[in-house]
Amino acid sequence: MCHPPQHYRLASGQRQDQEDPCKTKSKVVGDVTYCDRYWECINNQPELYDCPNGLVFAGKHRGVTEGCDYPWRSNYCDGKQLATLEEEEEEEEYDGPISTEHCDWLYGIFGHETSCTRYWTCWNGTATEQLCIGGLLYNENAHSCDWPENVDGCQKHPLCNEDANGNVPLGKSCNRYWQCQGGYPRLQRCPAMLVFDRRSLRCVVPPTEDCDVPTTPLPLEYEPEQQQQQQQGKGNPNAIYQPSGAGGLQGGKLQSGGRNKN
Fold it and tell me: Where along the chain is composition biased (Gly residues) (predicted)?
């Protein structure tokens, strides 16, 4: 629950170049010293607010909530510092990073502890596990899913050593195989009445040296992601799905939250 903010006189205890929000059209201005604080004009009085823990001020009606945004999205903190990283000073207390399970701050996007293809989105301390699709890996520096060659520290799977984007037989199976995407294998199934040929490494019309003609149509047991990829390759039994570009994050809906400085 937010407590009513205290009123501050900008000339008292503040830098003389701090802009007065009550003299601006937007009635909201960033703090001149701290990038995770801002001033808002309430009842003709300037009031000081903190951005939610882990976010910094971006501007009125900007960012992900309450005018605050992820600090890495722009140069919000150039020439400024974080109040949340300051030590206690006289008459003022600064909250440091507030961490919960999987979250370094209450708000943010963080890498997974054990997986290169997963990451966490944290909102008010609640972590939601997300998955990079299409053979992409989570890039800690870019805070987004990226091509494997741009991500340091994640080794390719041994199954895909020979061809990072090829097909690999699955034991003696006639209809299932591994599809490598960016060095990481995805389990796939040939379309009905086709079999996987270990020599051409593609789904073909049987018989082959290893597989006969199926007596009945094979059941479709796709996982949702695999089914989507198969539909994109419909009409070409050897089509390999590739993303059109390394895109952003597959996050959930953002909700608002935060508090004001008291």
Answer: 245-255
| Pairing mode of beta strands 37-42, 45-50 | antiparallel
State how far the Cα of 235 lies from the Cα of 213, in Å rounded to an integer.
20
Strand 68-69 relative to strand 56-57, pairing: antiparallel
Q: pTM of this prediction?
A: 0.57
Tens digits of residue pLDDT in 3-32: 334 444 554 445 568 889 999 999 999 999
Q: Of 1.10.10.10, 2.40.110.10, 2.170.140.10, 3.30.70.270, which CATH number belongs to 108-150? A: 2.170.140.10
Residues 6+ apart with CB under 8 A from 104: 54, 97, 110, 122
- The gap from C-alpha 55 to its chain's centroid, in whole angstroms, comes to 15
